[in-house]
Amino acid sequence: MREEKQLAIFLIATFLVGVTGLLLTGVIAGGKDTVYVKAYRADFYLNGTLSEHFTYEIREASKYRMLYRVWEAPLSFESLSVPFVEPLSINPPQGTVAYVKDHKGEVWIFENGAWKRSSRHQHRYYEIWSLAERNEAGCYKPERFNAGEQEIKYVFRLHPPLECDGEHCHLNLKLATKHLPYEHVTVAIHDPQGLVEQIFTHPPMEIRKEAEGVGEREERN
C-alpha cells in the first residue's frame, strides 16, 4: 500500500493506536546520574506531526557537550520507500548548535529557521560528525554545558507503517528505547474529531481524556 493511501486511511478511519517504548529507567531521587530528563512531553497530531519537549537536569558542569535523541527509524529529509522520520525544526538552548545526522551519515545544521548541510571539513562542526550517531538529532555546545536545566524542543513529521483492515488501522509508535532516565513523562494525542478508538501504553501509564479530544498518558517515577 502506498504511503499516500496509508496516511489517508490514517486520517479518516477509526483506528487503533499503540504507543510503546517510553522506557523509564528507575527513580531519580537519590540516584547518581549526572544528567537525566527531568520532564518530557510529546504532542502527537494525526497528520503525523510529533512535537517533543525535553527538559534536562545536568548535575555536573563542563562534562557534556551534546544533548540528543536517537531514532531507530531512518532520519531523512527526502521521501523514502520505508517508514522514516522527517526532521522539521529544533529549538535548542541559547548558545548551542542544533543538528541532525541523517540515515546516510550526513550532518545538517538548523540555522535561521532552515536546514543546511554541513561539510565534514568545517572545523566548527567536526565533533558533531565524529561523535553523533546516524539518525540522531540534538544540540551541540563545544565548551560544554553548565550545571542546571536545559530545554530542547523538536518537531518531526512521522511517516509510519500502518496495519489496516477494512475498518481499523493500527500504529505502533516507539518514542524511545535506549536513553537517559526520565522523571516525568506526558504524551498527548491530539484527536479533535474523536478518531482514536483505543490506546495501549508500555510501560503502563495513566490515561485520561481532556476537552477538545486530547488524551494524555502520564507517568511519574
Outline the structure in words.
- The protein is mainly beta and 221 residues long.
- It is 7% helix and 48% strand.
- It contains 2 helices and 16 strands.
- The strands form 3 sheets. It has a 7-stranded mixed β-sheet with strand order 5-10-3-2-13-16-15, with no helix packed on it. A 5-stranded antiparallel β-sheet has the order 4-9-6-7-8, with no helix packed on it. A 4-stranded mixed β-sheet has the order 11-12-1-14, with helices on one face.
- A hairpin with a 3-residue loop joins strand 15 (206-210) and strand 16.
- The longest helix is centred in the first third of the chain and has 10 residues, at 3-12.
- It is globular and about 55 Å long.
Tell me the number of helical segments per DSSP (H or I, 4 or more residues long): 2
Shape: globular
The run of helices and strands is: HEEEEEEEEHEEEEEEEE
Detail the poorly predicted runs. 1-31, 213-217
> Count of DSSP E strands?
16
Rg, nearest Å: 18 Å
Helix content: under 10%
Q: Please tell me the overall pLDDT.
A: 79
What share of residues are in beta strands?
over 45%
Strand order of the largest sheet: 5-10-3-2-13-16-15
Largest sheet: 7 strands, mixed
Structural class of the helices, strands and pairings? mainly beta
Distance between the termini: 41 Å
